[in-house]
Amino acid sequence: MRRLWILFALVLVVSFAVLGWVGTRIYQEMPPIPDKVVSTDGEIIIDSGAITAGQNVWQTMGGMEVGSVWGHGSYVAPDWTADYLHREAVFILERWATDEFNKPFDELDEEYQGQLTARLTKRFHTNNYDAETGTLTIDPLRAEAFAANVEHYRTVFIDGNPDYAIPSGAISDSERLRKLTAFFFWSSWAASADRPGDIASYTNNWPHEPLVGNRPTGDNIVWTGVSIIMLLAGISALAWWYASRKPEDETAGLPLDSDPLARWEATPSQRATIKYFWVVAALILVQMGLGVVTAHYGVEGDGFYGFPLSDWLPYSVSRTWHIQMGLFWIATAWLAAGLFIGPLVSDREPKGQQLGVNVLFGALLVVVVGSLAGQWLSVHNQMTDTVSFYFGHQGYEYVDLGRFWQILLMIGLLLWLVLMLRVLQPALRQTGHQKQLVALLAVSTGAIALFYGAGLTWGQHTHLTIVEYWRWWVVHLWVEGFFEVFATTVIAFVFMRLNLIRPNLAAAAALLSATIFLSGGIIGTLHHLYFAGTPTVALAWGSVFSALEVVPLTLVGFDAMGDLRRSRTSPWVQRYKWPIYFFIAVAFWNMVGAGLFGFMINPPIALYYMQGLNTTPVHGHAALFGVYGMLGIGLMLMCLRVLIPAREWKDGLLRFSFWGLNVGLFAMCCLSLLPVGLLQTKASVEHGYWYARSSEFMQTDLMQTLRWLRVPGDTIFFLGALALVVFVAGLKTGQSFKKSETAVQPE
Predict the structure, then answer these.
(1) Which of the 8 DSSP states describes residue 614?
(2) What is the pLDDT of residues 238-263, one digit of tens each?
């Protein structure tokens, strides 16, 4: 175990050193924000501070929940970087074609089209930013294109555009619209102007736009090849290592004749966690309903089957709430599971633990209600940009809640950390192999509480590239990293406490799994930043280590089969059948959602064409719900099962829920999201990224039919979630127990 701890510590130190070093490179080489933009004839096009102010306007109206910038955000509206860049290019080419050939650009011979696009490519890729004065100089024709785009975006954000699910009045006045357009201009300028001393733009020539010469770089191709080679090498090495292991009897010397928790009496704090699970069930149902509304806006952007729902619940709000609800219920399930399992770890409960659990519950409710209300007010133009940042909508996907609510959530996580450490402390003082597992649980608990703090590192006016760097610390490292370690440890402890695996094997397996996952996962965070204004070094490190993240997932089937065998070890284990089945589902979706669908989009050349297309929510839904959602449900059911181990559950609703959720999720991904995403990818390769996200393409009959094909999978999925909620409610009313059983009564 000592060697494993040294290896674990070494992985953390080296990985964070690399991630931090790359972060400094990103800070040094991020795209500059001009103080002002002027034309060659001296006219001021964009005044001082307007670009940053436009970023704040974008955040207040929903930011990444209304289309995307640099490929990060939502999927119904366009990517504004690609959209602005294409419209600007078309405007200039049309003017040149008319002035020089008296024809529209599309009617010119290919030779003349090539002549004009070559001229445009040179003009757009020439970097005219003066670092000493902070001034960006553009020619008058680009200034005219800016004015034309301002008028176009007036029809989108002030008049409204149903194809984009943007209601009228999304932007309240012309001045704010001009600032928003200035922000879009800057993001597209960074995407086309070459980085000083380089032959590619600040975004590594993303998005694909043939009109301005934006095509994949050599680095993009080379590092894709390197990442695939590293993936194959990692899989081969792990397979050899696994084959060299000596088989061990997990249960040797353990009593298997009876349930060791059959006589467990719930402590006051454990009973206090039950209300967390009622809230989890309620939030699941609300999230599913919001998901139905959000998906429907893709085919009817201004209503819900004819009802003008967007007047009260526009797409930007429904999608924000859909994501936030998902994060809230998953996190609540995991936090509650930790609080519940704590007394099982130490066989005792500290004084005042129940009070702490109740206070934390109240704090979480305040954060949930307050943040959702603030986001609604922000999107409906009821807040200034500054007030919105602190109490409304930050505009950054997955961390949309206002800074005030973020701080309250951080305080809640620190309270949870204190509650966890005080209940784990007696077990940490003991000797034996269980102590190693408890130590890992304490480390992962601390990481969960502290690493959310990365979401507090940026301010209202922070450069978008820096925000993206820290945002993915929260999304990738916090959610996909240390929550994963926490979950692995909790599951190992549950099986150990049930005498289904020896303590030494449970501790070693959990620590080794955490080490292997984090060895790729920490530096692999950079794969989200290939095209976010970062230098090539982020693409190089991110591509290699994101490929290594997939390596341990190739053998996840062994863990799944191990869990299945444990569920059949002894008749009494059948009481825990459905929690274990959800753990098995986690392994399946880890392999498919995180592994297969994740690597489908992660190599640089794939992500160059796919970023922000519907291939992304394939990975997002399959990984977020399939892995973390299923795990949250499994942990919730395990806690409720341990709470009442001697009482028999009715299996019908849980059986339907399990298969409904899994079959529905698979159908949702494979019948609709995946084919839509692949057809978008084809369009992106052939015509340019802008076209793959445009209403001209997405509103075609074929694409609309494929979007409607979400209905079968979504319906099955929703019914599965509803069955779970009814079952959990039945534990309160007694309907989920077999005859003569009584209901769970929380304190």
Answers:
(1) T
(2) 888 878 877 665 555 556 677 777 77
Report the SS3 class of residue 194: strand
Q: How far apart are CA 680 and CA 31, in angstroms?
A: 28
Categorise residue 614: left if φ over 0, alpha if ψ from -120 to 50, beta otherwise.
Answer: alpha
**Alpha-carbon gap, residue 678 to 617, rounded angstroms:** 12
Q: Are 298 and 695 in contact (CB under 8 A)?
A: no
**Secondary structure letter of residue 61 according to DSSP:** T
Q: Left, alpha or beta for 381 (phi > 0: left; psi -120 to 50: alpha)?
A: left
451 token code pair: 């690493």
Contact 365, 328 (CB under 8 A): no
The SS3 assignment for 455 reads helix
Is the Cβ–Cβ distance between 271 and 127 less than 8 Å?
A: no
What tokens does 403 get? 């800074």
Q: Exposed, middle or buried, 745 (CB in 10 Å: 0-12/13-18/19+)?
A: exposed
* 12-to-439, 477, 558, 595, 621 alpha-carbon distances in Å: 16, 12, 26, 22, 28
Q: Is 585 left (phi over 0), alpha (psi -120 to 50) or beta?
A: alpha
Between helix 652-667 and helix 710-733 the angle, nearest 10°, is 160
Contact present, 437 and 489 (Cβ < 8 Å): yes
Residue corresponding to tokens 């209905």: 711
For residue 538, CA distances in Å to 21, 188, 416, 696 come to: 10, 20, 34, 34
Beta-strand relationship, 36-39 and 68-69: unpaired
Residue-level length of the chain: 747
pTM of this structure? 0.93
CA dihedral for 219, 223, 225, 226, sign (positive or negative): positive
DSSP-assigned states of every residue in 110-153: HHHHHHHHHHHHHHHHS--EETTTTEEEE-HHHHHHHHHHHHHH
**Nearest to residue 662, comparing CAs of 582, 737, 729?**
582
CB 680 within 8 A of CB 697: yes
Amino acid at 307: F
Count Cα atoms within 13 angstroms, Cβ side, for 363: 19
User: Strand 36-39 and strand 135-138: pairing?
Assistant: parallel
Asked if 539 contacts 223 with a C-beta cutoff of 8 angstroms, the reply is yes
Residue 622 · residue 585 · CB < 8 Å: no
Query: Whole-angstrom Cα distance, residue 309 to residue 580?
Result: 40
For residue 604, whether the previous peptide bond is cis, meaning omega lies within 30 degrees of 0, is: no
Q: List beta partners, residue 209.
A: 214
Per-residue pLDDT of 97-151, as tens digits, reads 999 999 999 999 999 999 999 999 999 999 999 999 999 999 999 999 999 999 9
Mean of the per-residue pLDDT values for the chain? 91
Q: Which amino acid is at 428?
A: L
CA distance 373 to 531: 33
